[in-house]
Specification:
single chain, alpha/beta, Rossmann fold, 9 helices, globular
């Protein structure tokens, strides 16, 4: 039988063979530098293992052997948040916890720049897939800020926060990202925001369409997501989608088919896309300005 390897695997095989040779040599007393080399190679080995795992996930996904159901991932999401919040964020991220519970936290500057509002104006922001505690800053000096946070797990989050207990500054209300018009009028928000949430949805393209529908003309949909989380998490639980920036195009994929968001919404929005790093991971930021 002839084994055929994908391009990423072909690149990794010589490196893995080299690592195995060094591992054997490091046990040789005549090779005192081996232990040092092995320690220096650990980050490289971790990267190799990650690339192999992701390559395996991509192959199995394309073959239809790796799949998931959105509803089956919901219990794990609830368990994650209860563990993260019950000790004040110490087992998760204390800084992030403080931000989400700080009533004095100002609205993020990058979002202010997308909202053309006069001093004293009412500014309405929709936070989609907000989780139990929205990431948005709670006030904007000189403006009247109204934040509406929605999540399909709103009722479960409310019960969880009551048990911990944590009192949310912005109570989350029930709504699916894919069905926002069932709850809100069209053209009613100055900004629609989603952070690390639409890649957990069951239809992110429908969610983006709904977000565009509920923002006012010439207003923005702002999307902040870790890159290719579906592949990184082996398409487990709620991680069924990859968000990526490909040659300045915002691309969404389920591991089988790819969709250009720029092309999909070319008649309704102007799409820009950029990348950055946060929490040691690549992030994709997309901004869609409603036409």
């Amino acid at each position: 039988m002839v084994l055929r390897f994908s391009q990423p695997l072909r690149k990794l095989l010589p490196l893995l063979n080299c690592r195995e040779s060094l591992r054997k040599e490091s046990r040789n007393r005549n090779f005192p530098g081996g232990l040092f080399l092995m320690k220096s190679l650990r980050p490289f080995a971790r990267k190799c293992r990650r690339l192999l795992r992701e390559t395996r996930a991509r192959m199995l996904r394309r073959l239809g052997l790796l799949g998931g159901d959105w509803t089956t991932g919901l219990p794990a999401e609830l368990q994650f948040w209860e563990k993260a919040l019950k000790d004040g964020g110490r087992s998760w991220n204390e800084s992030e916890y403080r931000k989400r519970t700080d009533p004095k936290l100002e609205l993020q500057e990058e979002l202010k720049q997308l909202i053309p509002s006069a001093p004293g104006a009412l500014v309405r922001i929709l936070d989609v897939g907000a989780g139990p505690l929205t990431t948005l800053g709670k006030h904007w000096p000189g403006r009247n800020l109204e934040i509406v946070a929605v999540d399909p797990l709103a009722e479960q989050y409310a019960a969880m926060l009551a048990r911990i207990p944590v009192r949310p500054l912005v109570p989350v209300v029930f709504a699916h990202a894919e069905k926002l018009l069932d709850h809100f009028p069209a053209n009613s928000f100055d900004l629609a925001h989603a952070s690390n949430s639409l890649d957990h949805s069951y239809d992110p393209l429908a969610a983006i369409s709904q977000m565009l529908a509920v923002v006012k003309p010439c207003c923005y949909v702002y999307l902040w997501h870790f890159s290719n989380e579906g592949t990184h998490e082996s398409f487990s639980g709620l991680h069924q989608w990859n968000f990526d920036s490909v040659k300045n195009d915002f691309v969404i994929s389920d591991g089988k088919a790819r969709h250009s968001v720029t092309a999909q919404f070319k008649l309704t929005a102007k799409v820009t896309c950029e990348t950055m790093e946060a929490f040691g991971k690549p992030v994709v930021i997309a901004k869609l300005k409603k036409i």
